[in-house]
Amino acid sequence: MKPLALLLAVVFFVLGILYGLGTINLFTKSGTEHAHHITHLVLCWILALLALIWYRFQSSTETGRR
Amino acid sequence: MGGSFRSRGVPECSVTFLQALILALLQGVSELFPISSLGHTILVPALLHWTNVDRSSPTFLAFVVVLHLGTALALIVYYRARWWSIARALVASVVRGRLSQDRDERVGWLLVVGTIPVGILGVIFEQPVRALFGSPAPAAFFLAINGLVMFGGEALKRRRPGNLPIEHLTFAQSVLVGIAQSFALLPGISRSGASMVAGLLCDLDHEDAAEFSFLLATPVIFAAALLETRYLIAPGAHVVLAQAIVGGIVAAIAAYLSVAFLMRYFKSNDLRPFGWYCLIVGAVCFILSKRGLLS
User: Fold this and answer.
1) B123 contacts A39? CB cut-off 8 A
2) B164 - beta bridge partners?
């Protein structure tokens, strides 16, 4: 699960940047228009942070098993 | 009602003090009572023919942001001791890097997990859903449905009574409660009503279901308001500043009293009275809207 958690964190972090820059407009009100989607950026970064916390819990579990 | 304000140069989309007070009271009460605040903020202006209230204008949105901040603040103040222990337990578990058996920590992670669905679904679907259903007829229809959902929830609860404490919920159940809360994107469906019914079906009793619902609603209301604070600095937002400040205070007081009342109420009562209210008001408003009597 550790690689998945890390992958999710990276994906959400990058997605957040792309939304912030207006490069992607998926699931936004403006549709295909170029816009800075701050709400989407914030959501993606919160999800990235949660994925990192999940990664931390996984790491600790594996250390404990050893 | 808005004539004197308009003559002083206030834009027509602005809200008057009386409207601000009524809307603030309505927001503070209906956000926590399981009767849909969004549905009421659509239906009441339509019933009272408040043609100057434009729900999509930046000034009105700025006003609404302050009402939400007031409501969230009231919830945080009411549960301040609980939130403090939950926040400390969450930070401790992240630092430690593993979950423990601590009650507050467990509730904290349940809240985090339960908030994820409403965060994702809210960001994706809020605008299209408001655009599709943000008028009186759908709001009235969904308000009646909200009533039926509460009756259904109570009927199912009576079949399998249970009174698990909140911390005994599983993460999957917390996600389900979060998904149920997301149905409140539909005007007329109550956030607290939907999440309470889901909590009841996960074997919580009424008091714990209400508490979990209010705790779950707090970050959502607060985050939604914070993310919309741009409306407060938008050009023209200053015209509703006074109304927004008064409205925010009234909404906060109303919300605090509402949550205090509801936590007492749900010690020994259920959702059915709210179900009757939603069913009757929803049905009446739906008929009125179909007859063109709601504007």
Assistant:
1) yes
2) B204
| C-alpha separations of B234 from B8, B57, B58, B230 in Å | 20, 11, 7, 6
The Cα of A47 is separated from the nearest Cα of chain B by a number of Å equal to: 8
Residues in Cβ contact with B147 at an 8 Å cutoff, skipping those fewer than 6 apart: B274, B275, B276, B277, B278, B279, B280, B282
- Compare all CA atoms of chain B with the CA of A26 and give the residue at the minimum distance: B124
Q: Are B116 and A50 in contact (CB < 8 Å)?
A: yes
Confidence of residue B4 (pLDDT cuts 50, 70, 90): very low
Is residue A35 less than 8 Å (CB to CB) from chain B?
no
- CB spacing of A39 vs B227 below 8 angstroms: yes
- The token duo for B295 is 């504007």
What digits encode the pLDDT tens for the residues B154-198?
999 999 888 899 999 999 999 999 999 999 999 999 999 999 999
Mean pLDDT of chain B: 90
Which residue in A43, A56, A59 is closest to B123 by CB distance? A43
Cβ of B97 within 8 Å of Cβ of A43? The answer is no
Nearest beta carbon to residue A61 from set B94, B98, B123: B98
Q: Which residues 10-29 in chain A show a CB within 8 A of chain B?
A: 27, 29
At residue A66, does pLDDT exceed 80?
no
Q: Which of B14, B110, B192 is nearest to B102 (CA)?
A: B110
Cβ atoms within 10 Å of B112's Cβ, excluding its own: 18
The pTM (predicted TM-score) of the whole model is 0.89
Tokens standing for A64? 């404990």
pLDDT of residue A54: 93
- Domain ranges for chain A: 2-61
ipTM: 0.82
Count CB neighbours of A23 within 10 A: 11
